[in-house]
Structure formats: C-alpha cells, structure tokens
Amino acid sequence: RVRVVIVGAGMAGVQTAVALREQGFPGSVTLIGAEPHQPYDRPPLSKAVLLGKAESSAFGVDFETLGVQLRLGLEATGVRPASRELDTAEGAVPYDVLVLATGAEPVRLPGAEGVPGVHLLRTLDDAERLRPVLARQHDIVVVGAGWIGAEFATAAREAGCSVTVVEAADRPLVGVLPAEVAAPMTAWYADSGASLRTHARVERVEPGAVVLDDGSRLPAGAVVVGIGARPATSWLAGSGIELGAHREVVADDHLRTSLPDVYAVGDCASFPSGRYGERLLVHHWDNALQGPRTVAANIVGETPAPYDPVPYFWSEQFGRFVQYAGHHGAADALLWRGDPAGPSWSVCWLREGRLVAVLAVGRPRDLAQGRRLIESGTRMDPALLTDPSRPLKTA
Ligand code: FAD
C-alpha cells in the first residue's frame, strides 16, 4: 500500500487528503499538522471568528470516514529523502509520497517580539487572543495597511475600538495594487473612523505604545502586526528540496518539487504560470483549494493538465466586498468601470487587448464574468468596457 504523508493540515493539506479519496486513491493517507486544533479555515479568523459571530471555522470533513489518519499537534522538523522519512518529535514517519502544505507564517516586527500586547493574526489561537482585546475596546495600533491589516481594522472598528493603522509606504496595499487603484481605498479607512498614517515607520514598540521614527508616540492598548507572510519552509533546510527567492518551495507546473515523489501546494509553494509567463507565489485561499486536485491526480497516476489557474481572492473590508481575479503584472492598460469615489466600481487590466486581471469592489458580477473572460483570453473593446452599466461579458 502506497503511503502518502501530507505535512500541514490547513486548507491545502486537508484538500489534498480529500482530493486523493475523491480520485480513488486506495493507499494510506496521513495528515500531520503542527496546530493542536481540528483543521480549520483561515479567512473567517479576521472576520466572523474575530468578532465572536462564529465560534469556530473547522472544516466539515470527516477524516475518519475518509480513512485519513490525523496527527495533530505534531511538527515535522526535517525530511530525509534518501530514506524517505520525515522527522518529528514523535519519531520518524516513513512515506512513499510526501506532500508539503505547510502554508505561510506571518512576518514579525523586529524588536516587538515578547512585548506584552503585541499580536499577530494567522492562527485560531491568535484570533482567540484578540477577541477579548476587541471586547475591551482598547486603543489599537495596526502595523501594516495590507489585506490583513484592513480586515482587522474593520473588525476592530465594528467592535468599537479606536484604531490607528500605521503604514511605512505612502498608501495601502503597496506592492499589491498600483497607486491609482489603492488611492480610493485610502478614504475607506477614514470613512470607517480608523486613522491611517502613511509614511509612518515604527521605531519601537513599548508596553502600551508604538513609537514612530518621527518621534510621535501612539498609545496602544494592543498592537496588531500585519506586515506580510512568508512560506513556512525553514524546516526543509538541508533536505535538498529546492527553495526559491521567497524561501518558497519551487514546484513545477504539476506541483512536483525538485525531489521525486515530493509535491508542494498552497501558500508554501510557487509554480510557473503558463498563462502569465512567470512564476507565481499565491497566498490566497482559492489556490489552496484548486492546487490539491492536481497533486492528487499526479499521485493516483493520471497525467493532469498543467496547473495554470486564474488566481482569485476576496477580502471584506470597511463594509466592502473586494474581489480580484488574474494577475496584472504584465498588463499594458488599466481601465475603470464606475466611479472610484462611489460604493462600487471595478478595474480591468488588459494586455494586448485581452483581459488579464479584474478588481471588483461591490460588483461580484464583474468578477464572475471577468474571471471567465480572463480564462478564455477574449479580446475586449476598451470603449465598451468602461461603461459600468453594460455587462462585462458583452463589453
Ligand atoms: P495554511 O493555512 O497556512 O496551513 C498550513 C498549516 O501547516 C498550518 O496549520 C501550520 O501550522 C502547519 N505547519 C506549518 N509548518 C509545519 C510543520 N513543520 N509541521 C507540521 N505542520 C506545519 N485568502 C483569501 O483568498 N481571502 C480571504 O479573505 C482570506 N482571509 C484570510 C484571513 C486571515 C486571518 C489569514 C491568516 C489568511 C487569509 N487568507 C485569505 C489566506 C488563506 O487563508 C491562505 O491562503 C490559506 O490558508 C492557505 O492554505 P495553506 O493550507 O496553504 O496554508
């Protein structure tokens, strides 16, 4: 019996186990996860779970019925490919096929570690620690105006906290969206009653305060750090598995790593996108849902099509539903649909007349239609495209 061992019991790991059984894999499946909790979904952590509107976000998967052995609260500390063994605190775990699905871990703020009242938001434990902080309606300083920072600020405002978001760059979502698209989002912070301070570098964090490099001192009953996430791959050092520029596992277009019978999927891995002509490292939920099907198909011995998704994600912030599909890295035109000062609008990116990415704020239909148009590589008419009253699919 072939033994598949999956490391990481987040979305990508769990979906790999599910997809293996769906695709009829008859061998043994072991899912190893460092966290002690029943495997759970992360997006609700910065939304319903944080606000106490949902107790848990555990996946509705019956591992026993699926014949998946769960080993929770167990961290893999190394891989020895020559003997096909994984090292853990409970001894060696042998495998025939290994799937790396260890996700990402938040980047820490230098010097802030160990300071009382400083939080990250990645795990259920983090969210549970933050819930009473919201309930106490502290003054909260959020470091970083990225997706997580914005979602946390939204929840904290809803809970009645006073919120200051400090961002080193000149705008939110720097590195993710171009300046002209991020510009209208700046106003969302103020509209919700949060204060956004750009060009604000944290000099140090003290108990009860964040000190900026211009000398200003922000009182902080709690500090939430949201400055990005990195692939959780330090445990692979010395294994011979190739890592990339962001310390991610380098996978091929079938999500195979540089070692035979070792796959990588989800937030921990990058893959070459044929569609976009570059390597993508995607830190979003949909990638952790789709990738596992390709991994499972390889393992059951099929020859899957290359993994080449149109990346997709959503974010809920300041009362708005923000969705993005595609990848605008190599776009040559940016077109607006609707008024960015209004409640709903979209942005389309074209390359040589074809849609390559769409950002939709409160326009889920644009997103759904845009995603299909990106997939099919349909040529668009820019003059029609910018008319928000017209469906995107006929534009
Ligand atoms: P993870 O979810 O990180 O799971 C990896 C698991 O592996 C972890 O449980 C970890 O403990 C475990 N692990 C790590 N190292 C080891 C080891 N050595 N041994 C054993 N186990 C190990 N995406 C969206 O598209 N939309 C959203 O609205 C959205 N909201 C989010 C909100 C929050 C608060 C967070 C943190 C993320 C959000 N995301 C969202 C991103 C999305 O949740 C991730 O892309 C997704 O969880 C990736 O799944 P994964 O399984 O690859 O990694």
Automatic annotation (TrEMBL):
It holds the Pfam family Reductase_C. Keywords: FAD, Flavoprotein, Oxidoreductase. Its cofactor is FAD. InterPro entries: FAD-oxidoreductase/Apoptosis (IPR050446), FAD/NAD-bd_sf (IPR036188), FAD/NAD-binding_dom (IPR023753), FAD/NAD-linked_Rdtase_dimer_sf (IPR016156), Reductase_C (IPR028202). Residues 3-288 form the FAD/NAD(P)-binding domain. The keyword Oxidoreductase applies. Signal peptide: none annotated. Residues 312-395 form the Reductase C-terminal domain. This is FAD-dependent oxidoreductase.
